[in-house]
Structures are given as C-alpha cells and as structure tokens.
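hi!! sorry for the late reply, been swamped w classes. u asked for the two structures so here they r. pasted raw, havent cleaned anything up. first the sequence of the first protein and right below it the tokens
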Amino acid sequence: MSDNSIIQKRFSELTTTELYAVLKLRTDVFYVEQKVDESELDDRDREPSTEHFWLADGPRVIAYLRVLEDAEPEHLDAARVIGRVVVSAEHRGQGHAQVLLARVVEQFGGEAMLLHAQSYTAGLYAKFGFEPFGPEFSEAGILHTTMYRAGIR
C-alpha cells in the first residue's frame, strides 16, 4: 500500500459519506467488537486543529486515526496526541496502522507526541519511537499504556 492512498482531512473538509464511514468503523470496532462503554464522540473530532487520517477500500474506511493538538501538553512538551487508532477486523495484520503512523510521524515528527495505546499494541508504537511511561491503566475494561515520542529536529 502506498503513502498516496492515505486520506487526510480536517473535520470541516469531511463529506457526510466520509464522516459516516469513519464513525461506522470506530463504532464497529470500539463498541460492537471491544464493548467499550465510554463516549466515542468527545467533540475533539470537530476541533479545527484535529487531523483525520484514513485508508479506504471503496466507500469503506478500513483504517483510521486522528491527531489532536492540546493547548496544554498532558506530558512534557507533547501537545500532539494520536488517538482512535483502529483497523477493521478483516484488514488487521496487513500493515495499515503502520502506514498511517508513518505518515503522522513524517508530518509531525519534529514535535513531541503522546498516545494512550491499548497495551497489547504498544510494540507497534515502539517501532515509531514511542516509549511507555507511567503505570498501565484500565479504560473501558482494556489495559492501556501511555507512550511518549520526543520531537526529532
């Protein structure tokens, strides 16, 4: 899969069809499959600085993540926060999340970044320079690890 197949948009640029496809993937995985019972729609999607990245197969979104920009960093200097990383069940193990992460690191790698990974996926993020810190924590019944990546200038 080439880097050119990545779609990147801000909320105001999303079509209703794209928004539906993104939300369908997120709810199919987080609510239906993983039984997450916390709010999926947190208003951060609509913030002007939020960047949405995804891969599509026709009208379907098969992998997605978003990059937020916090006014005040949660940890050290990491104002950029990667979140909602998700790949459809039938497309897992094919490197789609890595393609999206590589684009984000290419675009924002000069800035420090933070993410809250489901602990079993921490190895994926370590490949991109993210290092775990702090204790594991449970969110919606799933163990998570907070990870930080220093900006590389």
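now the second protein. again sequence first, tokens right under
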Amino acid sequence: MSTFVKIKALRQSLSSSEAKLADFTLNSANAIRNLSSVELAKVVGVSQSSVVKFSQKLGYKGFPAFKLAVIDALNDETSEPKLHGKITLNDSLEQIAEKLLSSKLAVLTETKNLNEAPAVEKAVELLKSAKRILICGLGGSALVAKDFSYKLQKLGMPAIAEPDGHAQLAYVATFSKGDLVIAISESGMTREIAEVVKHAKRNASSVISVTKFGSSLVADSADVKLYSVAEGESVRLSSILARTAQDFVIDILFIALTQSSRQGRKLLEHSNEVVGEFKNN
C-alpha cells in the first residue's frame, strides 16, 4: 500500500505536528530522499520524536523504513486522477459532471490502493464459510448493505441487511461461531454498528469491517479490515463519494465470490433467467 495513500486516508485524524509532516511529505516528498529524521524535524518545525511517532503511526518501525517507503512510492507513482475543485452553486451542468467524475475516479483509485489482495481473499473465505451473514450499516451505508445482501442472496448465500439498529442487535444476539457480520461505517465510529460488532465478537462470530483507513471502534475489532475513501473537502459530495467507495469494495467481493464458486455462478445465472422470463411475459 502506497505511503501517500496511507497519509491521505489518515490526514483528518492526525495531530497538528503529524499533520505538518503529512503535508510536507505529500507536497515535498522528493526532499525527504536527502533528509535525516533530525533534518526533517527542523525543516517542518516539529520535534524528532514527532517524526518517529508519525512513521510508526503509518505502520513503519521508524524513520529509515518510512523514508524507504516514500522513495518507493515516488518511484511507483503514476498519474492518478486528481480533484478539480469543489462543486459550487454557479457551476454549469457540464462542470458539475466533470468535477463529480473526477472526484469519483480519485476515490475509486485510492480505495483500490488501500485494499490489498490478502485481506480481500480472507474476506471471501469468511463469506464462503459463513453459516449466516448480517450486513449492517446506517444511513447511506444501509443502502450499500442492502445492495450487498441482494447480491449475496443471488449466489445462494444466507445474507440479510437490516437498516434498523435495534433489529441488527436482536439478530446478532443469536449469532455464534461460524456466523459473520459485515460492518459498514464510513467513519468507523458509528455507535450502533460498533455495538453490533462488540456482540458479534462476544459470541465468537467473525467480523469484516468496511471503514475509513486507520484505527476506529468498528475496524479495531474486525477479523478482516477493508477500507473505503471519501474525500473530506466537499460536504456536498461526501455522502456520494462514501457510497461510491463502499459500493466498489462490495462489488470487488461479489465478483471474487462469483469467480471462486461454480455453484454460485449457476445460481446467479438461474436467478437472472427467472427474472428475465418474468419481464418477458
């Protein structure tokens, strides 16, 4: 996972010193090639210990590992799509469409980069082996949860999505080992979803989380952590982009499941045929 992607995903949760280091890394990454931790601290205006803590927060043992990761990210960097400004009240329909498309492309690219193959593969295995599946989310995340439950049902999998927090708790209270909760929360801090996860773990059930990158109430307890990205700069777009990223994650899981299960493919084809026949009558 690119160091730059990690920094962007964690940017909103950083302390003031960490934020300075994050912004310097994103804007002047080439300069880090030739700096020691002491020099970087002096340039940015923070303590050397802040540099070390920042490196560790990103998952590196110390500054040398962080520096190597930055160099690798610079060497591998491609022309990823960038946001072209916020949508304003004065934008034309063409400008709105262009900015929305650019925002969605950026969010999809970063979401792809945040989710590494081993985590997705482990999530697929948990889904395939689950006795029962509860997909939970509130608000916009509930819409994503319901869509995923429909997709899994077409593969013959025992999945339900309840939009009501009390119903989610009542159902997870009956769970045990072999059952699975998929917890969708953009912030990872949704109180109701965190409570469902707590009861799932108490009952020895597995949990897959779909949250923002980094530590959160929901993700910290999950067996598999998957991530979605929603750019925070534009309130107008935030819920749209959160759903775009979450939909992308569940679609990856759905396609991976379809690829790995011949029986699932047959059931999907049959369900599509039944609906198609009804429409044609």
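hope this helps!! also noticed smth abt the second:
Confidence is low (pLDDT under 50) at residues 79-84.
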